[in-house]
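Fold these two proteins, one after the other.
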Amino acid sequence: MALLDVHDLVVEFPTRHGTLTALNGISFAVDKGERLGIVGESGAGKSVAAFAVLNLLTRPGRIAGGSIVFEGRDLTTLSRAQMRGVRGNRISMIFQDPMMTLNPVLTIGTQMVETLKAHRDISDAEAKRIAIQRLGEVKIPSPDKRMASYPHELSGGMRQRVVIAIALLTEPSLIVADEPTTALDVTIQAEIMSLMLALCKSHGVGLILITHDLAVVSQVTQRVVVLYAGRVVESGRTDRVVHNPVHPYTRGLLAALPGEGEPGARLNQIRGNMPSLNAIPSGCPFNPRCDHVLDDCRAALPPLDDLDGHLVRCIRARELMTGRAA
């Protein structure tokens, strides 16, 4: 049984102009210790998927269908009190900006000790010992002294290391990381991702990495899910999806990476923009931007085609896979 099994998840946002569907029947699973990437442009539904797993959707957002089974329990059926026993305990989350996560008026040590005592019946001394140990694991120098520091006294990279240490405090079985390096300098991003990868391996923790960067996904994750307009358009083993992408959208994302173009030439880009939730095209939602579009693509939404474990939502998937598509 998978550690986390999300099946046919639907997330809606009711508005005065109608109901907007942010996620429309997406499914994915994470095994114990496995690392899964969820990628796509802004507006694809990546962060909504992460918040739905933790039941952190902002009202009036709601889970309107599907199931989220974690460690054998459907999280969509839990009460608020039961969910608090899961969130921050069995499932931890790392957000984009550490300054939005850490309390600016409390020391690092106070925040870490309070987090532990909220989920464990332990003494202050034991909580402090565990906190110092976790700070050491994320390569923070003099961790015992850093316990007395305030967030503003640390660099952005150091703050994100603290956030990772807090995520590991309760020994969760799953960490959800939502664009964890977006707010950091490029030189620091690789260090943080390498650190997260090493810690997930050493602690046997499952990871869901939310990002727009397929280059990061290829280095960190074992499987990947590509979202577009709230639907899964491609998923499978990361190495297979990255080296042999089939869906035109996945191919466009990979072609847009800086290293894919000629030196000095303009970067490749996917023409057009992600559709807004109240104006999703009929048929395949990617059809207005697709270079391989047919009339049938505008008529009906294609199902996910299973290409030997590599799932692709495109009526021309088999042609594209074999290179026969014009």
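Now the second one:
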Amino acid sequence: MLDSFHDTRLIKRIDINFLGEDDSPLSTLSSSALKVIEHLEANREQFIEEWKNHNYIHEEDIYKDRAPENALAMYHLFVRSLTHTLSLQEIQKLADKVAHERAEANINIGDFVYNVNLGQSILIHFINRSGIDVKDLYSIIDVLNTTFNEFTYYAVKKYTELKEKDLQEKVLYINQSHKERLSLLGQMSSSFVHEFRNPLTSVMGFVKLLKSGKNEPMYLDIIEHELSQLNFRITQFLHTSKIEFVEKNKKDVILILLIDEILDFIYPSLLDGDIEIVTDFKYTKAVHASEDELKQVFINILLNSIDAVKLMSSPRKIYISCQKEEQTIKISLSNNGPAIPEHTLKTIFEPFYTTKELGTGIGLYVCKKIIEKHGGHIDCQSDATRTTFDIYLPIA
């Protein structure tokens, strides 16, 4: 922020540099400028307060506390312009600073332009009450309009440049990510054939039984479950190929309700494996996320956990907990299946690494990418008693 002016020193400088000995237009204008500056300095706090009370600031603006500071800096630029000591570079410097703040805050630039125009109007209102002659008033206001218009022009210009650069970087990142995903798809196709074929074979078998007259209700439950599993695998496959922005389809998601829905979905697998679910939710508020993508993460890890505990004798248990740690939500998914070897833990989230005979090795890789896209991270610890996947998500 520009240094505040000391009234006496400022008046002396104006008097020495700009007040002529005769009654020339320059002398008249400088006297008027001096009078305006004295009036504005005497009412500076009132101007800032009035501007602050009437401007529009979005409640999510991360730089909203800097608004009074920027208003005062802009006021100082105008005062400097009246003393003929203001350079264009100083206007551009402040415009550049404010443009970076507006771009980082990701707030509509229209709000900024409105607030600048508001400050300009309030200053004109104060100048009109300074008592200077009408013939000099137009010259003072002309200086004011020029200063504010130049500031607005350079700020909006810089803001536009920053947003265009940001958009180009996002497009470049998305296109590059899309190319990598297409490359992954080529490698995934053959291994996914096995995962698609298994549930289809099961469905076809039970459909034949139904056609033969063996109308057991359990058959329909199994068919529904296998089709749901197939739909999940296809969704996982498509997730790797689609182009999307990070913020797409985000909303407030209640994790405990989402987990309950998922447990209903995988209930047949839990029942078949005689697996007990133990839950402990200390955090029950919402997280801002893509519900479908979080569902994909939890289902993937839980299905892996089911496969793991099936290798053990009873009791077979899966533990799900959720708690707050500072500004982070921690969701832990644990199971008492066999320990994952230490060398495997280092590569467990890499694409195409799998210990399953017909696995694709893409599930945990997709989980990791989804969580990172949400601004979080995921890790895994494993020993002889328990294997735990910890998911950390930022609190919205």
